[in-house]
UniProtKB/TrEMBL annotation:
Range of residues in the leader sequence: 1-47
Naturally occurring in which organism (per UniProt): Methylopila jiangsuensis
Name of the protein in question: DUF2155 domain-containing protein
A Pfam family annotated for this UniProt entry: DUF2155
Keywords: Signal
Entry keyword Signal: yes
Length: 184
């Protein structure tokens, strides 16, 4: 007859000293039960405090309307290009609706948007990237939105070159709404 192995239990209890009993209990649950307990814990904590109330989300036609953040349209998109063979990174500017060659790639931005400095940074551009073959044939390898905040989200997949958006230049600042000033 085999003796039960208590080594794992002892290791778990030594590891879990100093951790709250709730966390220890959740660690011992099967993964599905642990997920359910984690998702339901905030609701249970909210229900235990009678003074807390949650306001329902405003429905259409109710509450105040929040205006969208104004975006700034820029005339120039700024890209970085990586040549994977030499390891050299090159920064290049491309005017909107113009095409600039980077190695065997042709980069054409159609729009480039940023947000005002008072808002969270968000630089986006709609870009077409074409590859020029040795036979002088052009093939579209990327068409879509690029985000400067997360270049890996929408990257150009090419065996030799990488291209990603880093910024936009030259946009006019959006005009602030005219309203009464102090003292009027």
């Amino acid at each position: 007859m085999r003796r039960p192995d208590f080594g794992r239990y002892v290791a778990l209890t030594r590891f879990s000293r100093g951790i709250s009993p709730i966390v220890r209990a959740v660690r011992r649950l099967p993964p599905a039960a642990a997920l359910a307990a984690t998702l339901l814990a905030p609701a249970a904590a909210l229900a235990q405090n009678p003074g807390t109330s949650v306001a329902p989300a405003p429905r259409s036609g109710q509450g105040e309307v929040i205006a969208p953040t104004p975006r700034i349209e820029n005339p120039v998109a700024v890209f970085n290009g990586l040549d994977k063979i030499t390891g050299r990174i090159t920064e290049f500017d491309v005017p909107i609706e113009k095409t600039v060659a980077f190695g065997a790639l042709k980069v054409t931005p159609h729009v480039c948007y940023t947000r005002p400095p008072t808002e969270q940074p968000n630089t986006t551009s709609y870009v077409d990237v074409d590859e020029l073959s040795l036979k002088n044939e052009q093939r579209r390898i990327f068409s879509g939105w690029m985000f400067a905040s997360s270049p890996g989200l929408s990257s150009v997949e090419h065996p030799i070159y990488d291209v990603w958006l880093i910024d936009c230049k030259g946009g006019a600042r959006p005009e602030a709404p005219q309203g009464p000033t102090l003292g009027e």
